[in-house]
Design a protein that fits this description.
642 residues; alpha/beta; Rossmann fold; GMP Synthetase, Chain A, domain 3; 7-stranded mixed β-sheet; 5-stranded parallel β-sheet; 20 helices; binds 5'-O-(acetylsulfamoyl)adenosine
Length: 642
């Protein structure tokens, strides 16, 4: 733990949306004492409602409703309401493609694009409650697709472009989606990443999909299936620019986003309308200290929750100007991000510890090539940031002038839960600091009792909050069991944490079999199920190994069925197999072949021991429940041969 603290500078405090610890405490205390008043007043002030709600929330643990009976529309809040203000010709999106092409889109223009596309969706017969799966590169039409769905109450589910056809198929099937919105491809490191062929492959077994809409990005040859597939530009031609936003009930599902859990099957996290847009909007002002004149950039992909809340919904609802970038940080060379910061004079920059560690490794010469003096606030998300990377970010990128907001949250929480308000809370490198107003976090033992200062425990939330997920798609039982049963009535985050003497939260990592590779959530079970689907594999056990850049790397222990297998070629084949089954970002770094896996007498694989082997190459932990001790020496010895 780093001992140094960084209080906000007087200049920063003076201009901040929330000023000083008193400013933070007043909000926090009011939210704690009078949640209905606190959230009710904010919802009225920050959000447009077609019809006001009858009560602020209804909590029937573990199910909650926010702004009950209220009618609103997320797309209206992100677009229409700005058009009668000085924001109408303000830039909403400053987009840069990887090849260097640019588009500058004002709020008015974005509204036009969204209305036209929403009318195109209507023209295909799509309506409130239908499901659209979106599989696109980082082009402006991706936010346009989300906002058009939101406008009509069509539930969208974005599948990250790095997922394979198999993973895409599973999501389309789980949702019984009616439409897939995609593109011919996108650009990544100078190469085309094809998307439409993966859609075609997935759709062989997806009878519910009646329409595929294809945006032309790369212009490469694309097969179109008559009657099913439509080019975006053809549907868009001559369509009306008038499409009123539907007044939707506050609890209308907005999107489903799949995320890894402890089993092999990803969970469909369901977010709804009113509560989600309220907290997305507020966190822009509280955590990113957004001001009217700021240029803001979140480097995430819209395929992950960070992109949903902090590229699309939060910034647009708050009326921000956002930079959006299509490609890789190292293309054509490692200064691309800093070139963009310099070119558009970015003020607020939000990225991941993985990216920061990669930049540290490449050296200071890349950021030094550019003027980064426009930056005034930096952010981090996805995994714990190690103090050394924090210090580098602060010094080399932030010029020792910019606060860093380390933001802890999850797909399930919808918006930032634990993070400093930068004009109020002194920073400690490596800590997310304090919970947001209205977030009643705690660190507890198995009986739900708070643990002592600096002791490790389970991170939980004691109260519902507006942007929390409402359920798992078509699986309320798993929702209840997974998150609410262990410590009854409280939300179990799945993270371990400790709280220091100042009440600051330090996140220690997952308590379940969920890994975090480059800030992407992956489950051991999901990877293991993928591996055993391969004809050569009898059994697989997957663990995370600490990795200098990505936080964790995937190591797979594999036992084979009888046969003459060539380990060298099979190892590579299995890595490719995982890329095929899940996506290339999930490829194991290592495949280790073994005759047996360490198991308990009841047959459970002891991943804890495998984790120790890959980390320290020895086992010192408790092995009394292990069936066959010889397994361990074999596994460790095998590594020495490598
Ligand atoms: C936003 C996002 C959630 C998991 C979460 C943590 C880890 C995220 C931080 C963090 C330490 C942070 N959603 N995590 N942010 N750990 N400090 N600032 O990442 O659903 O994909 O992942 O990520 O373990 O439970 S997510």
């Amino acid at each position: 733990m780093s001992e140094r603290t960084y209080p906000p500078t007087p200049e920063f405090v003076r201009g901040a949306n929330v000023q000083g610890m008193d400013g933070y405490r007043d909000l926090f205390n009011l939210a704690e004492a009078q949640p209905e008043k606190f959230w009710g007043d904010l919802a009225e002030k920050e959000i447009f409602w077609f019809e006001k709600w009858s009560h602020v929330f209804e909590w029937n643990p573990p199910f909650v409703k926010w702004f009950v009976g209220g009618k609103t529309n997320v797309s209206y809040n992100c677009l229409d309401r700005h058009l009668t203000t000085s924001r109408k010709n303000k830039l909403a999106i400053l987009w840069e493609g990887e090849p260097g092409d640019q588009r500058m889109i004002t709020y008015q223009e974005l509204h036009r694009l969204v209305c036209r596309f929403a009318n195109a969706l209507k023209g295909r017969g799509l309506k409130t409650g239908d499901r659209a799966v979106i599989y696109m590169p980082m082009v402006p039409e991706l936010p346009v697709a989300l906002l058009a769905c939101a406008r009509l109450g069509i539930i969208h589910s974005v599948v990250f472009g790095g997922f394979s056809a198999e993973a895409l198929k599973a999501r389309i099937q789980d949702l019984d989606a009616q439409v897939v919105i995609t593109a011919d491809g996108g650009w990544r490191r100078g190469k085309e990443v094809r998307l439409k062929p993966a859609v075609d492959e997935a759709l062989i077994e997806c009878p519910t999909v009646k329409h595929v809409i294809v945006y032309r990005r790369t212009g490469s040859e694309t097969a179109m299936q008559e009657g099913r597939d439509h080019w975006w530009h053809t549907l868009d031609e001559g369509v009306s620019e008038v499409c009123p936003a539907e007044p939707l009930d506050s609890e209308t599902p907005l999107f489903v986003l799949y995320t890894s859990g402890t089993t092999g099957k990803p969970k469909g996290i369901v977010h709804t309308t009113g509560g989600y847009i309220l907290q997305a909007t507020l966190s822009m002002k509280w955590v990113f200290d957004l001001h009217e004149e700021d240029t803001y950039w979140c480097t995430a992909d819209i395929g992950w929750v960070t992109g949903h809340t902090y590229i699309v919904y939060g910034p647009l609802s708050a009326g921000a100007t956002s930079v959006m970038y299509e490609g890789a940080p190292d293309f054509p060379q490692f200064d691309r991000f800093w070139r963009i910061v310099d070119k558009y004079k970015v003020n607020i920059f939000y990225t991941s510890p993985t990216a920061i560690r990669a930049f540290v490794k490449q050296g200071d010469q890349w950021p030094k090539m550019h003027d980064l003096s426009s930056l005034r606030l930096l952010g981090s998300v996805g995994e714990p940031i190690n103090p050394a990377a924090w210090e580098w970010y602060h010094k080399v990128i932030g010029g020792e002038r910019c606060p860093i907001v380390d933001t802890w949250w999850q797909t399930e929480t919808g918006s930032i839960m634990i993070a400093p308000m930068p004009g109020a809370v002194p920073l400690k490198p490596g800590s997310g600091t304090l919970p947001m107003p209205g977030v009643l976090a705690d660190v507890v033992d198995l009986s739900g009792k708070p643990v002592e200062v600096n002791r490790e425990g389970f991170l939980i939330m004691r109260r519902p909050w507006p942007s929390m997920f409402r359920t798992l798609w078509r699986d309320p039982q798993r929702y209840e069991e997974n998150y609410w049963k262990r410590i009854p009535g409280n939300y179990l985050t799945g993270d371990a944490a400790r709280r220091d003497a100042d009440g600051y939260y330090w996140i220690l990592g997952r308590i379940d079999d969920v890994m975090n590779v480059s800030g992407h959530r992956l489950s051991t079970m999901e990877l293991e199920s993928a591996l055993v689907r391969h004809p050569a594999v009898a059994e697989a056990a997957v663990v995370g190994k600490p990795h200098e850049i990505t936080g964790q790397a995937v190591v797979a222990f594999v036992t084979l069925k009888k046969g003459a297998w060539d380990h060298d070629t099979l190892g590579e084949e299995l890595r490719k197999w995982v890329a095929h089954e899940i996506g290339s970002f999930a490829k194991p770094e290592q495949i280790r072949f073994s005759d047996t896996l360490p198991k308990t007498r009841s047959g459970k694989i002891m991943r804890r021991l495998l984790r120790e082997i890959v980390t320290t190459n020895s086992v010192t932990g408790d092995v009394t429940t292990l069936e066959d001790l010889g397994v361990l020496t074999k596994l460790a010895a095998q590594h020495d041969d490598e």
